[in-house]
Amino acid sequence: MSSLSSKPYQVGYALTPKKEKTFILPSLLSHASQIGVTLTKIDPSKPLIQQGPFDCILHKLYDSDWKQNLQDFASQNPNIPIIDSPGSIEILHSRISMLETVSKLRISNIGVPKQITITEVTNSENLGINFPSIAKPLDADGSETSHKMHLVFEKDGLKNLPLPFVLQEFVNHGGVIFKVYVAGKYSRCVKRKSLPDISEEKLVNLQGSLPFSQVSNLTAAGGGAEGCEFEKTEMPPENLVKELVEGLKEELRLNLFNFDVIRDIKNKDNYMVIDVNYFPGYSKMPDFESVITDFLIDVCSKR
Ligand SMILES: O=P(O)(O)O[C@@H]1[C@@H](OP(=O)(O)O)[C@H](OP(=O)(O)O)[C@H](O)[C@H](OP(=O)(O)O)[C@H]1OP(=O)(O)O
Ligand SMILES: Nc1ncnc2c1ncn2[C@@H]1O[C@H](COP(=O)(O)OP(=O)(O)O)[C@@H](O)[C@H]1O
Ligand SMILES: [Mg+2]
Ligand SMILES: [Mg+2]
Questions:
Q1: Which residues are listed for 1D-myo-inositol 1,3,4-trisphosphate binding in this entry (predicted)?
Q2: Which of 19, 42, 75, 217 is most buried, judging by how many CB atoms fall within 10 Å of its CB?
């Protein structure tokens, strides 16, 4: 570990203004500086090789100029860790390839919901997907539209949705989702409220599709598991989460990611991964400041 008696580690970060606001918090900067880590903003429009020196680079920018800038830096500084490699991050930019990594792991009791890519909507073909389902934009590239989803209750509901999208079967899961945050060797599973279950009875009265922003209209209470139910919801088995984390780390070759897991209400031993995100909102995670600082020290000290 670095200490104040030696030179602090210099971490350069290149983030969108939104990410900077939610991640580079005063509490993180002050905790990091106390134990010998300085975080410095990179100007992504200027050559990285003219900035620094850095002991490690942290980034979440995807444009081609930035990727070129990173590559130029990496070829001149092969020993400076880049968190993470743009090639590895890219796997998470398609909602198909992101979940293929989960299927590859072949862990019993862990799966993904059935899904297909829709590039055009025709009347005739049988899709082989049950309703209700969710239409998710194929690209998960952090853009505003990449999170705009629709619940689809019948085939007719597929018309007029923005293409291309992934059509994924909706899995009733008791209105609770588990989010597993990974930062290097650290991981932490937390629970959050999710969409409410859709019963057969409810479904008969539902037509077409509904944007997520209106999903609260589905329940009088306005959301997933309420108060007490949420508190009572058991966490997934620790060893299962661990196996999933280790498997995904090896498959994805990423340090900073989280994934969303739901438990099938019909078979409580079965879990499904529905989403994997690069460099998620860590500040919502317990002990955010120390977890991230310890991770940065680990990365800088290993080079
Ligand atoms: O902004 P936040 O803190 O809500 O973080 C978002 C994440 O929320 P979470 O940590 O899972 O609660 C969010 O996770 P979800 O997709 O909502 O599961 C994404 O990682 C999002 O990044 P992007 O827009 O997909 O590039 C993340 O957005 P960025 O902060 O990276 O823009
Ligand atoms: N297959 C599914 N079955 C049930 N609920 C789902 C399913 N997929 C997504 N959801 C719900 O929709 C939310 C958003 O979907 P997600 O794939 O995580 O998109 P995003 O990348 O925008 O977070 C999830 O947090 C969960 O509440
Ligand atoms: Mg999600
Ligand atoms: Mg996501």
A1: 19, 60, 147, 277, 281
A2: 42
Share of the chain above pLDDT 70, in %: 95
The answer for residues whose C-beta is within 8 angstroms of residue 132's C-beta and 6 or more apart is: 151, 152, 153, 170, 198, 203, 206
Rounded distance between C-alpha atoms, residue 219 and residue 141, angstroms: 31
Residue with the nearest Cα to atom 27 of ligand 2?
194
8 Å CB contact between 28 and 293: yes
Give, for ligand 1, the residue of 191, 277, 292 to mutate: max count of ligand atoms closer than 8 Å to Cβ: 277
Work out which ligand 2 atom sits closest to the CA atom of 95: 17
Assembly ipTM: 0.93
Instruction: Sheet containing 271-278: give its strands across.
Output: 110-111, 271-278, 256-263, 176-183, 186-193
Looking at residue 282, the DSSP 8-state letter turns out to be G
Residue 36, CA distances (Å) to 11, 13, 59, 101 in order: 11, 16, 20, 36
User: Is 174 marked as a binding-site residue?
Assistant: yes
Sketch out the chain's domains with CATH numbers: 9-84+287-302 (3.40.50.11370), 90-278 (3.30.470.20)
The number of beta carbons lying within 10 Å of the beta carbon of residue 125 is 8
pTM listed for this prediction: 0.95
| Cis check: omega of the bond before 137, within 30 degrees of 0 | no
| Closest C-alpha to ligand 2, atom 12 | 195
> What distance in angstroms lies between residue 135's CA and the mean position of ligand 2's atoms?
10
The annotation status of 109 as a binding-site residue, yes or no, is no
Q: State pLDDT tens for residues 256-285.
A: 999 999 999 999 999 999 999 999 999 999
